[in-house]
Structure formats: C-alpha cells, structure tokens
Description:
This protein is about 25% helix and about 30% strand. The chain is α/β, with parallel strands linked by helices. It has a single domain, classed as 3-Layer(aba) Sandwich (Rossmann fold). The protein has a 7-stranded mixed sheet with strand order 3-2-1-4-5-6-7, with helices on both faces. The longest helix has 12 residues, at about 75-90. It is globular.
Amino acid sequence: MVTNYIKSLNLDNLVICSPDHGAVKKNTDFAKAFPESNFAVINKKRIKPNEVHSMELIGDVKGKNVVIIDDMADTLGTLKKASEILVDSGALSVRAVATHGILSGKAMENLENSKLTELIVSDTIGSVYDKKSPRLKVISCSDLIVDVVDRLVKNKSIHELNMM
C-alpha cells in the first residue's frame, strides 16, 4: 500500500522520521521496507493535550528526503511544525504518511501553509475524499481489507501481510 507508493517515488537519501518517541516502533517497522534509509525522531514536549511546547530534531536530514509515519492526521498543526523543523535542518523534501486522515479544523489551511511536499493518507475515513489539495494523496486500503477477509475466511495468518 503506502510502501509501494513511497518506493514508486524513487527517493534518494531517504530518512524515515518518527513524529515522536511513541511512534518509534511503528517507524522502525516501516523503515525495514527501505533498508538503505536512515532514521530520525522529532522530540516533542507537550504542555497539555493538543498543545506542543517545543520540538527538536534528533538525527541528520541535511540533503535528505524525509518521510514521517504517523497514525492520525487531524489538524496538521504538529506536522506543519515538524515539516518546518525538518526543512530548516536541510531536508530536501518532507512527506507525511497517516493511516487515518481526519483532517479537521484548519487541517487543509495548515497543509497549504506547511513545508510538507505531500500528505499521504488512507481512505479509512471516507470524508478525506471531500478535501482537495495537490499535496494530498489518498491511497485506498480496499485491497488490504479484501486480503485480510480472504485470509480470515480461509483460516490463514494475516501476520505476513504488508499493512503499510
């Protein structure tokens, strides 16, 4: 699904970037599909829920193409700030991947005013198709759902499926 799309972009000097320490495992799992990639983390400190106090980059992104992997993209405030830090640190491009594109509030405004090259989301939330932007890429997860249901009906493991 997403890994195939990222591979189709033929990005040189790829860095997989975790948007926070809580997503490091998910990002390292994703990075296995890109053995030549490097890794970075955004160290995010929150004052309270939905309010970021500060963000800092751990890792080298200078001259690199960065892909951030996250579970949700809601207002895109954090992704906007993260993309600024990454570009200001020398990243050539910054893409963000989110399984669920909630895209509420000022999300589309934040996307257009961000330094994100592209936001890639799945269609787990159907209203994502109502959002229009040349920077928004929606990838269908229908083939994955068909594969999961087929394996479950046949009493086969879904463990080896590429969920990303």
